[in-house]
Amino acid sequence: MRPFLLSRDTFHILVALADRDRHGYSIMQEVAERTAGQIRLSPSTLYSSIKRLLEQNFIEELEERPDPAHDDERRRYYRLTKTGRRAAMEEARHLEKLLSDARASGLVRKRA
Amino acid sequence: MSNSSKSPAAGALRFYQPFLWLYPAEFRDEYRRELCLAFLDRWREERTLFGLLSVWLHAISGIFYQAPREHYYMILHDLRYAFRILRKDLSVTAAAILILALGIGSTTLVFSLANGLLLRPLPYPQPERLIAVTETSPKDLNETTQIAFPNYFDLRARTRLLEDIGVYEAGQSALRGEGSAERIPAAFVSDGVFQVLDVEPLLGRLISREDDLPTSPKVVVLSEELWQRRYGRDPGVLGKSLQIENSRWTVIGVMPSGFHFPDRAELWMPLQIDPAKAPRTDYFLRAIARLKPGVSIEQATSELESLLEQIHRENPAANNHWVARAIPIRKSVAGSYSKAVLTLLVAVGLLLLIACANVCNLLLVKASARVREIAVRTALGATRRRLLRQLVTESLLLGLAGGALGVLLAYAGIPALLSLVPVDLPFWLKFSPDYRVLGFALGLSLLTTLGFGVIPAFSSFHADLTDSLKDGGRGGTSGTRSKFIRHGLVIAEVALSVILLAGAGLMIRSFLALRMQDLGYHPENVLTMSIDYPENRYPDGQPARALLRRLTEEVSSLPGVVSTSFGSGVPLNDGWGRLFTIEGHPLDLKDMSFINHIVVTPGYFRALGIPLLQGRDFVEDDFDAPRIVIVSASFAKKNWPNESPIGKRLRFGPPKNNEPWHTVVGVVADSKHGAYKGEDRASIYLPYNPEITPNALLVRTTGDPLQLQQALRARIVGFDSDIIVSRVFSLEQIVTRAGWQDRFFTVLFTAFAALALLLAAVGLYAVISYTVSLSTHEIGIRMALGASASRVRNMILRQGMTLAGAGLAIGIAIAFTLARFLQSQLYQTSPTDPLTYIAVPILLIAVAALAAFLPTRRAARVDPVIALRHE
Is the pLDDT at B13 greater than 90, yes or no? Predict the structure, then answer.
């Protein structure tokens, strides 16, 4: 069985960026909401991950500010790149497969 | 953050922001603002005190978790990049690593030597409190390191600052019976020796004060190795009796594994000397003592001095005004080597400097090629700090790789080095690398990294970046400034290598002088060996005489043997010194000097090739009327300057002993008997007689003496299997061994100097080559304007020779000043030896000319058309 491609935090960040471009704090909020507060990224974890993701070309930093309502010119916005989207999708498929395996073995109850 | 600083949350930032210093600077510069904003946003979400506290803790713990990882990623990134860069220029990288390895390896090698000799602690408890106690003639404070038994006995009874003191005499003892007879290293010790060393036996007990009384039974303590070898570790060995020489000794104890003292002794017997009967001027024992805690060497010395003075006052007949000294035990063993080893460390340090200069130059040349890369990276936003760190990482990688390879070289070199040491060093001298050596090598690698890495790194920044981007990178460090540095480095390299060459030259001259000296005998084709016979079957007198005569006949009858003789010692391996008085010229005890006291059988002078100058040689009949001597020429000249020494009389020992007079019957040429290097004592020869039976066999042969050793040994043991033949050497081997220290240091010094010369030549070659490649354009123009190839060649050659000449001049001047520090190690060679200072420049100029000539050929081949087409 292949190891996970992405770390848990990284995956959450990519998922948070999947529907729209966000700045750092918005990513933190989104992750916290999505997991019902179970996963709260610290600023340090967030930006270390962002740095790695930028280096891997999974995300990119935007020049323009896409969220005029919430605009703050000092905030940096990030967007998922094609590579990043592909990596996140692959990871999601992998998780799906895992889950279906778990269901098939009766470990997890099948959805009705 | 001007907005947020007005909000109440701004205070919180003060408790967050300082922790960001834990990040690498690059990360901090990039994300500080974002981190703070995100932190403040989170902070504003919370209302309760608990909530705020947990946000803060969460943020801080995040920093503590992530900051080290950022450092790690950064280093990893730098290393990867450095690896890529170094791999791209593999030849430069390999050259730099090899040069550094040679420098660091040689230095580590010499350091492990110094470590073994001077730093490694002795394998005894609290070794820093162990001292040697010596009695020394005030005339020559370095002369003797030994002590007389009654003086030791009185010192021991009176000292308050020493915990205890013991004396010992090391030698070889013949072990007979229970298996084959063998000669093994052994020592006679007083009971104090084991107390002082603070050791416990593995089995049984040690030699006690009662055992050491003159009337006590003979007992012996064995080493664990001997116990294993001869008794298969049988605990029943205690109480068994052992035949050592001619007596039986009862085993009372076994020492723990690895214990040997002194040197390699394997069995210990009590001295059992009666202090009332032993002479006070008979210095044949060595003393070791342990200082009481807190007592200094100086305090101990002054106590011992005053105690010995007191002893002298009480025994005026034996008062020779000698003084007592306390010497740290390590110094007493290794002290004579320490100066030479420190000299070598300095020499090898110079070599390391040359290696650094060399690598520095290599990197400078490389840096100039990289100016463009650095300019591009700077333009893309890399900070100066970032680039500097990148360059330092590259240097560090080179330094560590060179260091690692150097340590391997040193590991490999140690056995080779020790193979140059033909003598048994004390067992506790170990030269294998330990943590000190490894730490030293690591420190050295880091230090050299600084040495060679910093200049090229900074010079990369000083280059004009805009220029190098515009131009194809040709401008760069070819500027005056870096040219100045490069030339300066080469001059320094040459100068340093000249210093080493001059040192090596002096050492070689000194060593040759030592080897060429007139020994007074012909050492070639002489075999020497030690003969141990059972003294109860051949006691001194007629039985021993008959044995020697029989052995002489047996050996002489072997084919290839020219002449055979016995002596009380082998030249250069004998230390029987005695005081003497010339009839009619009594001297005070304190003014008396020592001579070599040599007892020989007839034919001794013939066997060694020592010419008889006056009077007659010994004959067999002298055995019965032995009160005659033959003296050496310098002895005769000194004591009877204007008259014939024949018929004059002298006697041995301190005046109060009233020993019988001996008449001089002959004079022989001087020969080196005691000391190989430096002044030897004069020699007096006696015929063998009923009191003294010499046991060193000297055989002159027609061919290679070592070829005969099997036949000789077989013939002797065939005559009597109880005779032990040992220490079989050719006289040439003995002469070589006597000069081993000089050979050792000369070989090493010369090797370092040769390496230095090679590195300096490589450095010169590299710089000239680089100059040629930089000035291809200029050369092209010159040639287009009509300069001939030879003229271009001369121009380049002149440049190289100017650098070499400058280095030579500086090097010679420094060498001339420093050489006097070598003085004490030189034998009949002046530190300003003209031949050395003529030969070194010639050698250097020749090598430099070759190094500068090779690149000139390339310069002369420059095609003006191609060189100028570039424009």
Answer: no
In this complex, which of B27, B37, B58 lies closest to A75 when CB atoms are compared? Answer: B37
Same domain, B697 and B747: no
Residue range B558-576: mean pLDDT, rounded = 88
Taking the domains of chain A in order of start, what are their residue ranges?
8-104
* Chain A CB contacts of B70 below 8 Å: 48, 51
Structure tokens at B391: 């360059």
Is B477 exposed, middle or buried (CB count within 10 Å of its CB: 0-12, 13-18, 19+)?
Answer: buried
Whether residue B42 lies within 8 A of chain A, CB to CB, comes out as: yes
Q: B234: part of which helix (H) or strand (E)?
A: none
What's residue B866's pLDDT?
A: 74
Per-residue pLDDT band at B560 (split at 50, 70, 90): very high
Closest alpha carbon within chain B to A50: B31
Nearest 10 degrees: Cα torsion B428, B432, B330, B823: 130
The count of C-alpha atoms lying within 13 angstroms of the C-alpha of B431, restricted to the half-sphere facing its C-beta, is 21
DSSP string for residues in B315-352: -GGG----EEEEEEHHHHHHHHHHHHHHHHHHHHHHHH
Q: Do B214 and B292 reside in the same domain of the chain?
A: yes
User: Chain B partners of A47 at a C-beta cutoff of 8 Å?
Assistant: 31, 34-35, 38
Chain B partners within 8 Å of A75 (Cβ): 34, 37
Q: At what angle do helices B789-818 and B480-516 cross, to 10 degrees?
A: 60
Strand-pairing partners, residue B785, are none
Contact A44 B69 (CB under 8 A): no
- For the stretch A88-103, pLDDT in tens is 999 999 989 989 999 9
Share of chain A above pLDDT 70, in %: 84
ipTM of the complex: 0.89
Determine which of A23, A44, A53 to mutate to test the interface with B (most B C-beta atoms within 10 Å): A44
Architecture of domain A8-104: Orthogonal Bundle (1.10)
Q: Is residue B123 part of a domain?
A: no
Q: Which residues of A touch B43 (CB under 8 A)?
A: none
Does B790 lie at the interface with A, CB-CB under 8 angstroms? no
CA distances from A52 to A6, A58, B27, B298 (A): 11, 9, 12, 66
**Residue A28 is nearest to which of B42, B61, B67, comparing CB atoms?**
B42
Domain membership of residue B292 (yes or no) is: yes
User: Which of B88, B104, B124 represents a domain boundary (last residue)?
Assistant: B88
User: Does one domain contain both B562 and B684?
Assistant: yes
**pLDDT reading at B2 higher than 50:** no
Predicted pLDDT at B280 = 84
Pick from B392, B366, B367: nearest CA to B448: B392
Q: Which residues contact B15 (CB under 8 A, 6 or more apart)?
A: B56
pLDDT > 70: percent of chain B: 95
Task: Please answer yes or no on whether A24 and B37 come within 8 Å at the CB atom.
Answer: yes
Minimum Cα–Cα distance from B37: chain A residue? A25
CB atoms within 10 A of CB A108: 12
Which residue of A42, A59, A77 to mutate against B (max B Cβ within 10 Å)? A42
* Distance of residue B19 Cα from the nearest chain A Cα, in angstroms: 11
Helix (H) or strand (E) holding B193: helix B192-197
Residue B344's domain spans which residues? 338-516+740-869
- Which chain A residues have any C-beta within 8 angstroms of a chain B C-beta? 24-25, 28, 40, 42-48, 51-52, 74-76
Per the prediction, chain B carries an average pLDDT of 87
Amino acid B339 reads: K
DSSP 8-state assignment for residue B648 = -
User: Distance from A24 to chain B by nearest Cα, in Å?
Assistant: 7
Task: Kindly report the length of chain A.
Answer: 112
CA-closest candidate to residue B696, choices B731, B661, B746, B741: B731
